[in-house]
Amino acid sequence: MSSTLIKGLEYLQKINPVDQVIIMLCDQPFVDAKLINKLIATQAKTGKGIIASGYSKTFGVPILFGKAYFEELMSLTGDEGAKKIAAVHEDDLEIVPFPKGKTDVDTEADLRDLNL
User: Fold this and answer.
1) Is the dihedral of CA 7, 9, 11, 13 positive or negative?
2) Model's pTM, two decimal places?
3) What confidence tens digit (pLDDT) does each residue in 30-40 have?
4) SS (H, E, C) the chain
C-alpha cells in the first residue's frame, strides 16, 4: 500500500506541486464527485489538515491530507496505510459522514451482491 501512495505523491509533486491530496481506492462504488467536493469544502471550512470519510463506526478513504502531512505519508512502509497517520493526529482530523463507504467490491460475490 505504502509504495503506491508514495509513488503517486512523488509524481504529483514533480509534475504540479499540490497543497493537498485525496487518497482513495478503486473498489468503493459509491464514491462520487459530491463526496470528493464535500471533503474539499470541509477542509476549506474547518481548516483541518486531514478530512476523512466516516463509516461503520470508523473513518477511512477517501481521505484528504494537507501538505503538512506529506512527509509522514512519504515515510510509510510496507502495508501501512494513511489511516495510521490520521489516527495519530486526531486533533487535526475532521470526519465527513459517508455511510455507503463501508461497501467495497473485492470479489465477484461482492459485485453480485452490489447488483441485487
Assistant:
1) negative
2) 0.91
3) 999 999 999 99
4) CHHHHHHHHHHHHHHCCCCEEEECCCCCCCCCHHHHHHHHHHHHHHCCCEEEEEECCEEEEEEEEEHHHHHHHHCCCCCCCCHHHHHHCHHHEEEEECHHHHCCCCCHHHHHHHCC
